[in-house]
Each structure stands twice: as structure tokens, then as C-alpha cells.
Amino acid sequence: MQIYLPIAEVSVNAFLLLGLGGMVGILSGMFGVGGGFLMTPLLFFIGIPPAVAVATEANQIVASSFSGVLAHFRRRTVDFRMGTVLLIGGLIGAGLGVVVFNYLKSLGQVDLLVTLCYVVFLGVIGSLMFIESLRALRKAKKGGAAPAKRRQRGWVHAMPFKMRFRTSGLYISVIPPVLVGLCVGVLSAIMGVGGGFIMVPAMIYLLGMPTKVVVGTSLFQIIFVTAFTTMLHATTNYTVDVVLAVLLLVGGVIGAQIGTVIGARMPAEQLRVLLAALVLVVCGKLALDLLLEPSELYSLGASGGH
Amino acid sequence: MVRSLIAALCLFCLPAVAAEEQVVLGLSQDRVAITATFDGSEILIFGAIKREAPIPEGPPLEVIVTVAGPSEPLTVRRKERKLGIWVNTDSVEVDLAPSFYAVATSGPFKDILTNTEDLRYRVSIERAIRSVGAAMHIEAAQDFADAVIRIRESESLYSIRENTVAVDEQTLFRTSIDMPADLTEGDYAARIFLTRGGNVVSQYETTIDVRKVGLERFLYNMSREQPVWYGLMSLVIAIAAGWGASTAFRLLREK
Asked: Domain segments of chain B: what residues?
């Protein structure tokens, strides 16, 4: 069934959108990532104008994250205090990110820089996670329950403004989480994603939060940052397509529920290996697009951005 | 003396007689409504040629029909390999390019319209794109214009279909123009040219109104006129759907 999208001004198959939403929703529920880093390129691929894809994706992530966070909330795996601290950084970051995005747009190289951002971040994070979780898996196989490592008392603990995060079992300075939130906010505004795929590893490896709490907390933060981004896009670029968003989220919310159940049943280590592999696959695809000669060297864009 | 006067009068009258061939046009629809389930449209364009005098001698009458969407400026970028990756380097501004352009003719285009006439009336796809102000420092600016045509033809936004206008007895003609699903709003100009021996003898122009209607219209207007409320509405719908599905799923599992 073809459906005409009022803002994107293209006609697409409604079932294709539902299917895409569902597929990405399952991943979103399993890994606690918004799925934007997969969905945004997929939307480009089916012919949605990039500006509309990025803005609408932000709206859709709000929905899939909301249903995901409810499930986590019920299992008490959301650290609201940590989430709020991350959120403060995230909102500032998103504001900065939009400024940077508009500057790059005026240079006419925004596509390249967005793709490069994806390749670099997905590549680095994917490889780190993959190596780390493989090592953890091997250890778990060898010596049964590995002795719980004492958390390092490094630079994270030497900073002022310490705060107790009971749900995470942490007593650390608020500066690292605010900075993590800020970086994720900037990147999410530039790359048109929720930023979970960067925040989840940052929370695990940088802040030392328990994996169980990480997913729910990142979803909690993502909801507010993407809602903020949606409003920015809706009021400045008029590129939020609510029909597209509804179709994606109908598939997405159902997928997210299924994903959360699967995620809860799978061991955390295996979950991490899978997420790492997925991140690396997307990275590889984008890198190939940059390296191989495109079949069409020319591209059309609306005038004005130079 | 009288004879030469008559001859001169006849000569004077000839072009006027030629212009006496006028188009009487019919359209299957003069407005295209873009609804939520819009997936393209086919417009029948038909008409007759009205004459005061008998059909003139000489080459037969040919008909060219064009439909053009609203024009807009474009930036065309070309990729080049730099440091191993493909990046946009050169760009050319195309002053005006129609968002949609279809040409239907009653014969081979080159035979029924001369180059000069094409230049004057901007009939062919190449001429419909205006890139006069293209940057001169980039060689082969024509490559960029060709790219616009190539890309839009592959999206079936631009098309030229020869021998698709049926002409009966040099008086009746009909054709159909396919409009794809990915239409933009605006006034679409439909032009009909009558040619003889490659020269345009008559021209007729009308507009086809392409508009969003119903829900599409409402959402589009709201997003432009009340962006804050539109944004909030999008968020509320999203969150409601998220919460609703989550609750439904939980109830389903508890049973």
C-alpha cells in the first residue's frame, strides 16, 4: 500500500516502513540503543530526503525509547539521578550540535562530515567493545565466575562535586557524566541519532556503571534529548513528518517490546558481542560507500546552502 | 497593378491564416489532488484544431505537448577522489530546473521542431533547464546539466516520449502524461505546440493545479504555520503510541 508523506513529499510503501520500524525496534529494545544509527541511513536509502529523515527519526526515537524505558522502569533498572545529570549535559550538547551542524551546512560538506563521524565513532566503539566482550566471554568460560574486579580509582574519582548514585552503586563526581552527556548531545544533533550506541559503552567503560542499569538509564536520557531535537527541527527546518514517524513507531514500539524480552533473557556479555558486531557492520557499509567509486558522481541539492 | 496588390495582400495575409489554426483543449482533470494514498496520476490531454480556412498545403501538422512542474534553483555537486575517499568537490548552480518535465510528441522530436524554435520556446528537456549563470571556471558545465537530466530521468521525473501524441486528420489529437507519485505541489504548466515543417504555428498554454488535500493539507499547513504546536503534537502522538503499545504488550503477557 503506497502512502504519500505530506512533509517529505514522497510516496512510499506503508508496509516497508512498518517492517523497518519493527526490525529497528527489536534492536532498540535488546541493546538499549535508539536504533537511529541504523534507521537514519535506511531512510536515506529508501529515498526520504536526508533533512526529513534526520528530524523524523528523532521523533520516532522518542516513542520507541519511551516504551522501552517503561519496561526498564518496572524492573527498576533506571538510574534517574544519573539520567538527569546526563540529560543536563545532553541538552547543552544538542544545542551546540545544531549550531555546528548549520555551520557545516554552510560549507556544503555536511554529508561527508556526517558519514565520517559515523565511520570513526562506530569503528572505534565497535572494535573496543568487540575485543573487550570477547575477552570477557573467554574468561567466563575458563574460570567460571571471574572474581569481581575492584573498580579502578582513577581520574574519575579524583574530581570534585561528588554525588551518590544509589541505583548504579556509584559515588563519583558529576563532571564525567555531564561531559559524556554533552558529547553525546553534540553527536546526536550532528548525526541525527539518539546516541545510545555511544552512551552505552561510555557508561560501562568510562563511568563504570553496571550493565543492567545502563540500558534503562540511557533510554531515559535519550527520550528528552531527542524530544528537544524534534522541537528544534520542527520549529526551524519544518522537516518533521508526523505520518512517517507514526508508521515507523507503530512497527518500532512493538519491536522494542519484543527486543526488551529477548534482551532480558540473554547474558549481558553475549549481548555486548552482538551489539559490537552490529556496530562494525554498519561502520563497514558506510566506509565502503566512501571508498568505492559511486555509480553516480553527481548529486542534486536544493540551492541556498551553497 | 490590381493583380500585384492582391498578391501583396495574399502574402501579407498568409502568416495570419497560418495562425488561424488554434487549439481547443480538453484535460481529463485540471487539478491533481494529493491525498494520503496518492500514488501517481495519469492526465489525458486531448483537443482539436480550430480553423477558419481549409487545411493548409505542405508538411503535415505535428503536435508537441509538454507538462512542467514548478521551477526551482538547484545545486549540482560532483564527487572526486581525495585522499582515498569520494567527496563533493565542484558544484554548479542551476538557475532554474523544473521539478517535473514531460514531453510528448507526435513524431521524432528532431524532425518536427527545428533547433531555433526549440531555443525560442524551450521545449526539449535540455532547454527547459536554465543554467545561464553557471560558474565559468568549471569546465564542462554541460556535464552538470546532463547530470540533472540523467538523475531526474532515472526517477521518472523527466521524460520525453516521441510518437505518443495521436493526431487524426490533422485536426484531433490526444495523449496521456504520467505523473509519478513523488510530485511536489504547485502550478504545473501544460503547453501545446502545433508545428509545420519544424516551425511553431500555434501555441496554447494552461495550468494544472497540483495540491495536497485533506489530512495532507492540514498537516502541511500546520507544520508551516504553527511549528511549535505541530512539534508538540508529533511528540504527544509518539509518546502516546509508545506508552499504549507498552501497556498492551504487558497486559497480553500477564494473561
From this structure: 23-211, 213-255
Within 8 A by CB and 6+ apart from B223, the residues are: A6, A7, A234, A238, A240, A242, B230
For residue B96, the distance in angstroms to the closest alpha carbon of chain A comes to: 10
Measure the CA–CA gap between B187 and B183, rounded to whole angstroms: 11
Closest CA to A247 of B36, B123, B104: B36
Q: What's the gap in Å between the CA of B121 and the closest CA on chain A?
A: 25
Nearest to B151 among A3, A254, A296 (CB): A296
Read off the C-alpha cell for A302.
Answer: 536544493
Q: Does residue A160 belong to the interface with chain B, where contact is any CB pair within 8 Å?
A: no
Q: Which three cell numbers stand for residue A210?
A: 553496571
**SS3 assignment, position A295:** coil
Residue B129 DSSP code:
S
List B176's β-bridge partners, or say none: B44
Phi and psi angles of residue A208, each rounded to the nearest 5 degrees, phi first:
70, 30
The pTM score is 0.72
Residue A30 CA to residue A262 CA, distance in Å, equals: 6
- CA-based Rg of chain A, rounded to a whole angstrom? 19
Note whether B77 contacts A62, CB cutoff 8 Å: no
CATH of B23-211, one of 3.30.1490.190, 2.60.40.3880, 3.40.190.10, 3.90.1300.10: 2.60.40.3880
- What mean pLDDT do residues B177-182 have? 84
B229 vs A contacts (CB less than 8 Å): none
pLDDT digits (tens, 9 = 90+) for B75-100: 888 888 877 778 777 777 777 888 89
Question: What average pLDDT does this structure show over B143-163?
Answer: 85
**A82-107 confidence digits (pLDDT tens):** 888 888 998 898 888 878 877 776 66
What backbone phi and psi angles, to 5 degrees, belong to B132? -60, -45
8 Å CB contact of A302 and B74: yes
